[in-house]
Amino acid sequence: MGVKKKKEMQVTAMTICHQDLETLRSLADVEGKNLASLLLHCVQLTDGVSQIHYVKQIVPLLEKADKNGACDPTIRSCLDILAGIYLSLTVKNPLKKVLASSLNGLPEFFLTEAIQSFTSRLQEELNTTDLCSYRKVTDNISSCMENFDLGRAGVNNLLKNVLHFLQKSLIEISEENRKFAGNHIVQTQLMNDLLVGTRVSVMLVQKIQDFQRIHLKTSGSPTWQSMCGLLSIFTKFLSDDDLLQTIQSTSGLAVILFIKAMFHPPEKIPDLISSLLLRSVDCTSIPDWFLNCCRSLCCTDVSQSTLLFLCQGTLTMLDWQNGSMGLSGEALLLNIVHVLFTLSSQIKESTLELFLSRILASWTNSAIHVLESSSPSLKDSLNGNSSVVGRLLEYVYTHWEYPLDALRHQTKIIFRNILQMHQLTKEKSDSETSGLAADRFICDLTESLLQLEWHVKGKYACLGCLVDYVGIGHILALAKTIPSQILEVMGDQSLVPYASDLLETMFRNHKSHLKSQAVDSTWIDEWHETWVSPLLFILCEGNLDQKSYVIDYYLPKLLNCSPESLSYMVKILQTSADTKTGSHNSRGALGALMACLRTARAHGHLQSATDAWRNLVSSARIKQGLIHQHCQVRIDTLGLLCESNRSTEIVSMEEMQWIQFFITYNLNSQSPGVRQQICSLLKKLFCRIQESSQVLYKLEQSRSKHESENELTKQHPSVSLQQYKNFMSSICNRLFEALFPGSSYPTRFSALTILGSVAEVFPVPEGQVQTVYQLSHDIDVGRFQTLMECFTSTFEEVKILAFDLLMKLPKTVVQFQDSEKLQALFQAALELSSSTKPYDCVTASYLLNFLIWQDALPSSLSASLQTQQASCGNGDKSAVVVERNTLMVIKCLLENLEEEVSQAENSLLQAAASFPLYGRVHCITGALQRLSLNSLRLVSEWRPVVEKLLLMSYRLSAVVSPVIQSSSPEGLIPMDTDSESASRLQTILSEIQPRDTNDYFTQAKILKERDSFDLEDLNASVPNIGASAEIKGSKERKTCDVTAQMVLVCCWRSMKEVALLLGTLCQLLPMQSMPESSNGLLTVEQVKEIGDYFKQHLLQSRHRGAFELAYTGFVKLTEILNRCPNVSLQNLPEQWLWNVLEEIKCSDPSSKLCATRRSAGIPFYIQALLASEPKKGKMDLLKITMKELITLAGPTDDSRSTVSKVHALNILRALFRDTRLGENIIPYVADGAKAAILGFTSPVWAVRNSSTLLFSTLITRIFGVKRGKDELSKKNRMTGSEFFSRFPELYPFLLQQLEAVANTVDSDTGELNRHPSMFLLLLVLGRLYPSPMDGTSSALSMAPFIPFIMRCGRSPVYRSRVMAARALVPFVMVDEIPTTIRTLLAKLPNCTDQCFRQNHIHGTLLQAKRQTLSLHSHSH
């Protein structure tokens, strides 16, 4: 709602070398009017924006010069310097474009001199041998050819040199890239340089005309040699899978473009490229230069990606317009699409699949160009009934539900182009004589789409394309109720955007169709009946989600299309509102009315608020809506009052009264969603008040001049401003009243959030800006105390809101006058930080942060830092004060923590009972997170503090680790407080001694100079506890009981806080680039120590709370390491990954890795290492790790590998669940499913358990997250063709496994034989469903599965029989269902059979029933 300030343009000023500067000084005239004076003044400026104004004066100055001025050495020198300036500017500097634009208007008689200057300066650039300068030179070549005549002429003059430079630079950068293998930061930069070099080479050939005559030149010319050299380089890039795919893709374009420029005669180019794509090159019939340059492309083992990018290059670089390539071009077009179809069944990597979809869409565009003037044979090959179009439609159907949104978008483009291709293949006479009804392709396509379930997202986009192609009349004739059908679907959030877009396409098409045919205005009645009536029914009778989505998505589009329909809707709803007022569970007509009015006002369809209330709805209706039983009606009514399409619309007195009325009754809403909406809408209202008040202030200032023209408000501006002030004051008074002691969480949340919005929207006035209200004026000591008391709430959200509000207030409001109170407050915060109640340390953290930022620390604390304070000088005082205060507080907390850790090392029980250690660490982390650690002033003071923090973290961790790393850290958890608890705890703690597999007590600690946990001392201390533990604190003697639960909470929370602290330090603190440098706070060694710490605790901790939060800290560390320029740190994640994989593979009995608890922290450890790998790279770590894990998880004969297999299955499960890996994990889904199904047959329970968990994760990964309770919901299912096209490797595997299962179901011996993996197989197959789009063209036929599934229906297990019946449905085509039912019924025993089983009969009847139901659903 607020007006955004326009971002100021930042322009780097241009500079010139000393020699050029002296030249300008010598040439400048005394009056300062010649070109040299202008340039001299320009380059002496330090502001780039000012320089732009001078640059624009160059050409007008030259136009005034005499035509003989071309010989003037002053102008010649200036033009030379201008060329140097142009080439020195960076490619993104606006000055470069301004200079080029100005020089394009250079008078003609200066052009020759200017071109010579540019040519000589560019020649100097091209002669460079510095590899670091290559990118700048390449960028300059690119800039010269983009809308810059002088630059293009210079490049043309130096074409031979430019080609030679590009060849040399690409070779050297490629070699440098190979040297830096493993250093992905350097490699990323070098690969970007390669990409730019390739693109510039393509641009050069496209824009320089001389290339049209290259084939006439001798093969020995330097230009030809450079061209051949570049072609060889691009061929090499194209086949190099270690490069970025964008480089390979651009190289594919370059290869085809260079072949087009160099190969002669051009008529044979389509045949040559066809032979390359079909891998059938005849080496005897092609020139030697081509064979030398492209030898790797002429082989039969060309990679999939190479073929793919060659297809892209062919479609992009050859001229497909007007059939210029003739029949050979048409043959090439068909060859390309067949190659793409083949690749589609082979490629499984998501990035290549995305490339493939774009290239297929590009192919359809090229096909449309060719069909506009093609031969009849091509039209026959590409009409709607052809095999090519059939394959294209199959591709659309199998990919329109693909997880990648970009790929789904391509399927829509392909479908739309298919319709256009079909239109072009029809003869004009056919189109004119036969209507749409005679076009069987379109009719069948429409009917098939309409038969599809509405949960298929691809259906909406394709129907939208059909509506644009055939019109809505054809669709409504086939399905008259389609608007209601689509609106019914709009209760599902995932389908709402697709459904609303389709409805908009339909009603807009229908409106234009009716208007074009109508002679009067009665057509609107039919349109209302079709589109508005179903909407009103949903608004009054639909379920809550459905109404919300229809109002948010459909209603605005409908009103934008037909604003006049609002009065029609309001008229109907007004008549119903008296009888259907709604209830707690229903909005009724009143709710629908408010929703319509709110949407109309928010989108500008109501002229003003006053008109709305007078003409459309009464004041009584508004009040009725504001206190309606249904929460959404209240929200919509409030939205009607608050929202407006104009941010400066005046808020009327009546509206303000209604808002006050609303706040009185609605602060205590129990629904979080409703609270958020109320706060958001009120913030919009406050923005309107602030924006409109600025207009009123201006009106007030100019009221004498414009009093008669004042149209915004009928009353005096000062009256409206006073009303605003009174309204805001009354609102804030009401909100502060709601913050009474003991008020509920919803009330506090709402009041604090709204007060925060007030403080944000009405800022402290600065300069000329006036503000109508300031919250600080209404805050006294009592209200300040009220906000401080909010810190004591047990809800952290309330603490956050109170803290943020206090921080928004000016310091004058929150100053502490009483130093004793200040000391008490600080002492209270310190005591809370060591409380045994976890939420107390959160309170302490916010309280300490508030004192730090308000500079309200007690004077006793700052005595230790007086000297540092003085040395800060007169810098940014506020930043220095905050930094100094933070440092003091952290030092204080650190001293307390050090003392408590020392006591905990003697007795962990004492720590758990009276001063759990995690609170202090939490407060330290909280203080660090709010400080900008990259711009510290007191670096010398921070360095020892950071070092001390790290050592203290390791000491604290060493104290609590024995409990967290024991084989059963939860212990017995006695909840009572009787006298037996102490002896129970002793038993628990003694059980974790050397019998634990971690063997923690005999291994060296990180801090070798201290003993972290002396069990003998603990055993000696526990018997003395007796009925209660007497804990001796540092200051007082406390008596309390200790339970194992208290010890465990103390330990795992301490581990959690240490992990978060270390993660925060890594993320926020600057690292030292060199060991002796003073610019960083963390040394390389410290970072390595932190990494080793995380590694030890992630791989050995058993308590989930401990290793999950260690994972959070470790993720922060790995992300920093992957961006670190230090190569030794950058390679650490890779080293750690190989080490842990080796440890998993070796299956060493003495390994500390936890094989129970789903491998505990091991999957988290590997997740963190892989998820932080740069996503734009090749993801090599992920690929290698997945191959290793799938090999380990596969079937083996070695019984010793059981533990390794369990670890591998658990890690795979974690990786498949990780959303950050995205589509990069999809290529491994099939292998993961194989491992899970085969693992389910293992005799070892641990393997079967891990396999089941992995299988469950894969089902979710393949079919999506289950949103409802319906097991048979088609939202989480796929068609058979889509499933097997995405995972073709599973087709033979599932078929083979199903055959093995079916052979064991019905044993002749009569023994019960249950195959363990039967249920998993049927579960997968049962998730598939038949589709009208499943054609017979697919090579993966469903028929072989049918007999095996039928036999599984005889299983003695009831659930398996049910699953078999469900799984059979998608494998039987609709027209084959009757035959299948007859086959099933024929297998039932007749009355003469003596030997039969009830399971057989039941299973067969279940399958017949399912088939009958399927046939029934298809017939409807």
Blueprint of the fold:
Elements: H1 18-27, H2 35-44, H3 48-55, H4 58-64, H5 73-88, H6 94-103, H7 111-126, H8 134-144, H9 149-157, H10 159-179, H11 184-207, H12 222-239, H13 245-262, H14 269-277, H15 288-293, H16 304-317, H17 326-346, H18 350-371, H19 376-381, H20 387-399, H21 405-425, H22 428-433, H23 440-451, H24 457-470, H25 472-478, H26 482-489, H27 496-517, H28 523-541, H29 544-561, H30 565-577, H31 588-602, H32 609-616, H33 619-626, H34 631-642, H35 653-666, H36 672-701, H37 703-706, H38 717-738, H39 745-761, H40 781-789, H41 796-808, H42 819-832, H43 838-853, H44 859-862, H45 866-870, H46 877-906, H47 908-914, H48 918-929, H49 939-964, H50 981-991, H51 1015-1021, E1 1029-1032, E2 1037-1040, H52 1044-1068, H53 1084-1100, H54 1104-1122, H55 1127-1130, H56 1132-1146, H57 1162-1171, H58 1180-1193, H59 1202-1217, H60 1229-1239, H61 1245-1263, E3 1278-1279, H62 1280-1286, H63 1290-1305, H64 1318-1326, E4 1328-1329, H65 1345-1352, H66 1358-1368, H67 1377-1386, H68 1398-1419
Parallel strand pairs: 3-4
Antiparallel strand pairs: 1-2
Helix pairs in contact: 1-2, 1-5, 2-3, 3-6, 5-7, 7-9, 8-11, 10-11, 10-12, 11-13, 12-13, 13-16, 14-17, 16-17, 16-18, 17-18, 17-20, 18-21, 20-21, 21-24, 24-25, 24-27, 26-27, 26-28, 27-28, 27-29, 28-29, 28-31, 29-31, 30-31, 31-34, 34-36, 35-38, 36-38, 36-39, 38-39, 39-41, 41-43, 42-43, 43-46, ...
Category by helix and strand content: mainly alpha
Number of E strands? 4
Distance between the termini: 50 Å
Counting H and I runs of at least 4 residues, what is the number of helices? 68
Rg for CA atoms: 38 Å
